[in-house]
Amino acid sequence: MPSKNTPVSIAAVAMHAGVSVATVSRVMNGLDGVRPVTRDKVLASVTALGYRMNHLARNLRTAASRLLLTMVPDVGNPFYSEIVRGIDSVAREHGYFVMLCDTGADEGRESAYFDLLRTHRADGAICLDPDTVQHALANESNVLPWVACCEFDPAIAVPYVGVDNYRAAGDAVRHLIERGHTRIGLINSDQRYRYARERQRGYLDAMRAAGLPIHPEWRQLVESLDYDAGKHAALQMMAQPEAPSAIFAVSDTLAIGALSAMRQLNKRVPEEVAVIGFDDIAIAAQTWPPLSTIAQPMRLLGETAAKLLLLRLADPEAKVQGVLLDHHLIQRESS
Amino acid sequence: MPSKNTPVSIAAVAMHAGVSVATVSRVMNGLDGVRPVTRDKVLASVTALGYRMNHLARNLRTAASRLLLTMVPDVGNPFYSEIVRGIDSVAREHGYFVMLCDTGADEGRESAYFDLLRTHRADGAICLDPDTVQHALANESNVLPWVACCEFDPAIAVPYVGVDNYRAAGDAVRHLIERGHTRIGLINSDQRYRYARERQRGYLDAMRAAGLPIHPEWRQLVESLDYDAGKHAALQMMAQPEAPSAIFAVSDTLAIGALSAMRQLNKRVPEEVAVIGFDDIAIAAQTWPPLSTIAQPMRLLGETAAKLLLLRLADPEAKVQGVLLDHHLIQRESS
DNA sequence: TTGAAAGCGCTAACAG
DNA sequence: CTGTTAGCGCTTTCAA
Asked: Which backbone phi and psi does A162 adopt, to 5 degrees?
């Protein structure tokens, strides 16, 4: 079976089978209205010639690529990869391929990727970038099919899925308070993210509601979500004269960095300082001590985002709603 | 500026500018042989109408999608995500988008993704799947442009990039031996991966070369590379009457799981049992104790793979070689 | 320097 | 049930 250099076209199959291209097309697309005998004849030619449809041509006709774009700020972050898995599974289930793009939360790069949508190389997009960069896409939201995942601004008319970050952060802080802490620090991330702003609001309000003191020095802002960033922030925070006895980090990666800082400082966790994270990524259960955290349903978040997008694709008119998923506290040994 | 529902085509621009579609095409592609006046006229119409080229149509003509496929066994594995970053950066530099696909190391899924190549929806592919599943693609290697990364079989005629797993594993074991260990265990992964088989060979030969005893019970095979798998394997290994005093895990994630197991067993690391991993993912420096490991140049691995593919795309005839990159030992506190 | 026209491989009316 | 035919939006000779 010589692998032909010239890819065989639908016309070649039609000729070989002694039918018209239309019939071949019908068979390839599983449309009915084709006599079994004819179908078999076509199928035989297909295998005989090793025919494979050129999707490019089909897409041009149908104006659909069956490709879904997923834009994430950082593919390396385990939080995002779990979400991506969720997206991928429902996309594949519906015959779509997903194209994963790492934007680095950069507006320019995101816009470049978004061009894939504008130029019909992708049918729809799921955006996990900061809501501040999402705003740039908001104008086109009515004409271009995209949905927001995790990050979203309810004010812009785009379907979204996420969690109630304000309440979740409050839950984390209230948990710390219940454990007897009064000096609670916050390691927060890039304020371009709405989740960061919301969680900070949750932290602040929970502290106030409990009548606890709020020290600006107990709040550290970091730019990236990697372990080192969390470590440095924690080190910084503990270097102060009156340091917190508990730390709430808005991401597990940051919290794990904080754990590492405590080790370096010879502070026992949770006896001397308690730590709680956010997300519940796989490694949170493996750290020392195992990390308490606010779990987000990552997989489901991704699946839901994909479903919302598919809905929007199926019916561009349908006004699809935003949806909030439940979080929950997982207490392990770090708090 | 009303966002038109009907996407404007090249014909619309031509009409608006009072030129032919051919001229518009020339301008869009930056070909010369167009009078500046004409060019400006066209450009003006382009912005006036908000024209964006339909790449689908262009691709059909040029038979190129500017899309590169990257097939990884598990997007959630931090080792792979760093490689993906490398691939992405050089691809983008050359005007390609990369489409990241999670195959789960499943032959069926990989084949489905590979269809994107066969049906012209992607120009080339980079495969990180087990060499055993790569074999299925080997027949088409001469006609379909793809390269292997990390996993590769030198026997099949496909460009590849990776490290010398045999020697690297030997280095890890020799390091443990130098630290005075004689009872060394191996946590190895799925034997469908050539790297797993090579590292095992490296382990075995290094042990033999040092005249050390080899106990089959000191070898644990796991199916997945997640933390839990490493933990269970380590637990299993330590449950034996004569347990190892050192463990070499073929992946950092596995090694981190082993660290977690030692904690549960109240074994001090490295005093009672030493642990060394492989890869040097970001979190390896943050564990307790910080993990010794064999570092792979992950980023460079990805960049090189992309470059090899680009080379193959530019000149399908050129016989591009396989390349091996250097690894190195990083000793931290777990050994 | 520009335009006319022929496809790229496929789908979808519309006929028969 | 099957075939004819007209495009999808673009690139690319070939002529003018």
From this structure: -170, -165
User: Of A1, A279, A92, whose CA–CA distance to B113 is shortest?
Assistant: A92
Smallest Cα distance from B255 to chain A, Å: 11
What is the reported pLDDT for A7? 74
Computed from CA positions of residues A13, A16, A21, A24, in that sequence, does the dihedral angle turn out positive or negative? negative
Nearest to B75 among A81, A283, A285 (CB): A81
H helices present in A221-332, as ranges: 227-238, 252-264, 298-314
Q: What is the reported pLDDT for A6?
A: 62
DSSP symbols for B123-143: SEEEE-S-HHHHHHHHGGGGT
Return the structure tokens found at B13.
């621009």
B95 vs A269 pLDDT, higher one: A269
Q: Could you say which of B85, B88, B283 has the minimum Cβ distance to residue A283?
A: B283
CB B287 within 8 A of CB B125: no
> Which residue type, as a one-letter code, is found at position A167?
R
Cis peptide leading into A7, omega within 30 of 0? no
Place of tokens 């997206």: A87
Up-side HSE of residue B193: CA atoms within 13 Å toward CB?
A: 27
pLDDT of residue B55: 86
* Chain B (162-221) residues lying within 8 Å, Cβ to Cβ, of chain A: none
> How far apart are the C-alpha atoms of A109 and B325, rounded to whole Å?
30
| pTM, full prediction | 0.91
Helix, strand, coil shares of chain B as percentages rounded to 5? 45, 15, 40
| Dihedral over Cα of A209, A210, A212, A216: its sign | negative
Q: What single letter denotes the amino acid at residue A248?
A: F
Determine the pLDDT at residue B120: 85
Q: pLDDT by residue (tens digit) across B231-258?
A: 999 999 999 999 999 999 999 999 999 9
Q: Going from the N-terminus, what domains does chain A have, and what CATH number goes with each?
A: 10-53 (1.10.260.40), 65-163+298-327 (3.40.50.2300), 165-295 (3.40.50.2300)
Rounded to whole angstroms, the Cα distance separating A272 from A179 reads 12
Amino acid at B296: Q
Q: Is the CB of B36 under 7 A from strand C?
A: no
3-state secondary structure at position A25:
helix
Say how many C-beta atoms besides its own lie within 10 A of residue B227's C-beta: 24
- Provide mean pLDDT across the span A208-215: 95
B59: which chain A residues are within 8 Å (Cβ-Cβ)? 56
Partner-chain residue, chosen from B57, B116, B226, that has the shortest CB–CB distance to A282: B226
Rounded (5°) CA angle B49-B52-B53: 130
Q: Listing from the earlier edge strand, what are the strands of the sheet with A146-149?
A: A97-102, A67-72, A124-127, A146-149, A160-163, A323-325
Strand C close residues, chain B 298-327, CB < 7 angstroms: none
Three-state SS for A167? helix
pLDDT tens digits for range B125-138: 999 999 999 998 88
User: Are A288 and B288 within 8 A, CB to CB?
Assistant: yes
| pLDDT at site A301 | 98
Residue B93's identity, in one-letter code, is E
List, as one string, the DSSP characters of A75-142.
Answer: TTSHHHHHHHHHHHHHHHHTT-EEEEEE-TT-HHHHHHHHHHHHTTS-SEEEE-S-HHHHHHHHGGGG
Structure tokens at A292: 């308490």
**A31 close to B (CB below 8 A):** no
